[in-house]
Amino acid sequence: MGQTLDDPRVLPPLMDTSELPGARVLVVDDVADSGRTLALVMDLLAKQGAEARSAVLFTKPRSDHVPVVRRAARDGCAVDGRVSPQAPR
């Protein structure tokens, strides 16, 4: 907790990409910390021909990734696209 890898990695087992070309995909992540892992996944999907969108439950302020949907937050994370100093109760 509180640590991120220098570079995101995709580890086996790898997904079957044969049905991705032309597919509409929603990638859901619980927490976007730096945003690098989610960006890697979105890039991999795009390279396979998928139309991908992302949704994130918690987006930390330092995250580089801007998801299509952001819902809840704590301690200064984004709430519905706005930055809130505290989570809604």
Give the DSSP E fraction (strand runs of 2 or more residues): 25-35%
Helix content: 10-25%
Class by helix and strand content?
Answer: alpha/beta
Low-pLDDT runs: 75-89
**Gyration radius from CA atoms, angstroms:** 14 Å
Order of helices and strands: EHEEEE
Number-wise, the strands total: 5
Distance between the termini: 24 Å
- Total number of helical segments? 1
The averaged pLDDT comes out at 74
Tertiary shape: globular
**Main sheet overview:** 3 strands, parallel
**Spatial order of strands in the largest sheet:** 1-2-3
Can you describe this structure?
With 89 residues, this protein is an alpha/beta fold. It has a domain at 24-83. Helices cover 13% and strands 27% of the residues. The strands form 2 sheets. The protein has a 3-stranded parallel β-sheet, with helices on one face.
Strand and helix map with partners:
Blueprint: E1 24-32, H1 36-47, E2 51-59, E3 69-70, E4 78-79, E5 82-83
Parallel strand pairs: 1-2, 2-3
Antiparallel strand pairs: 4-5
Tell me briefly what this model is.
By secondary structure, the protein is of the alpha/beta class. Helix content is 13%, strand content 27%. The longest helix has 12 residues.
Name some characteristics of this structure.
single chain; three-stranded parallel β-sheet; alpha/beta; 89 residues; 27% strand; two-stranded antiparallel ribbon; globular
